[in-house]
Automatic annotation (TrEMBL):
InterPro entries: P-loop_NTPase. Transmembrane segments: none annotated. This is Regulatory inactivation of DnaA Hda protein.
Length: 220
């Protein structure tokens, strides 16, 4: 994890953002702490929810790298997966939604519970708010630790914008980033979309990103 205060002070655009870098703010502190404090959890089931691009998969990558485990995407859950689950202590179920095979998911939850394993479930909204049809499975989903990634604060927005710019090999003056932070929606997906817009406009016009390009992107 990079130190944001150092990032803000040094404002180093040559910074190398690696896959295991994760910027922690008030919005994602709780799920980050839970991930790093395994296995000292109150329950064996952890649900990390948050909008697209909020860092859910990034967190599970950190967990698997540190503590080992397997990852299963919810739309690929099958009997073969369940056999593999029995050989692993930690399991990540990605992108849980109402379209999952509920009988298989219920079996997965039972295996985790009976064998004292650990399951991390990621989802766009908290698992308790997803309308599952199978009563037994719905009951199981109520027995999860809930860790929601909230909207980013200014400091985290700065880091996210800087990261997205760096990925595109773009450098901006700090005053331009501050200008963006005050005007773009406080949303992970909106930040990602906005950086994409200004990059696209800049390339189309063959001009460096400035206030005019930023304002043009804001108006679209």
């Amino acid at each position: 994890m990079k130190n944001l205060n150092q990032l803000l002070l040094k404002f180093d655009y040559e910074q190398n953002f690696k896959d295991d870098d994760f910027y922690v703010g008030k919005s994602n502190f709780y799920p980050f702490e839970l991930i790093n404090n395994w296995p000292k959890w109150e329950k064996n089931f952890l649900n990390i929810s948050g909008e697209k691009f909020s860092g859910k998969t990034h967190l599970t990558n950190i967990f698997i790298k540190k503590f080992k485990g397997i990852r299963i995407h919810s739309n690929k859950l099958c009997n073969k997966n369940l056999e593999t689950v029995k050989l692993n202590q930690n399991v990540v179920l990605e992108d849980l939604n109402a379209d999952i095979d509920e009988k298989l998911a219920y079996t997965l939850f039972n295996i985790i519970d009976q064998d004292n394993k650990f399951l991390i479930i990621t989802s766009l909204k908290p698992i308790a708010e997803i309308s599952f049809k199978l009563k037994d499975f719905r009951s199981r989903t109520r027995n999860c630790l809930l860790a929601k990634i909230e909207n980013p604060d200014d400091e985290l927005m700065f880091a996210l914008i800087l990261k997205n710019l760096s990925d595109r090999q773009i450098t901006l003056d700090k005053k331009l980033i501050d200008f963006i932070i005050k005007r773009v929606d406080r949303s992970y997906s909106k930040i990602f979309e906005f950086i994409y817009k200004i990059d696209k406009i800049s390339l189309k016009k063959k001009k460096s990103i400035d206030f005019k390009i930023i304002n043009e992107a804001l108006e679209k």
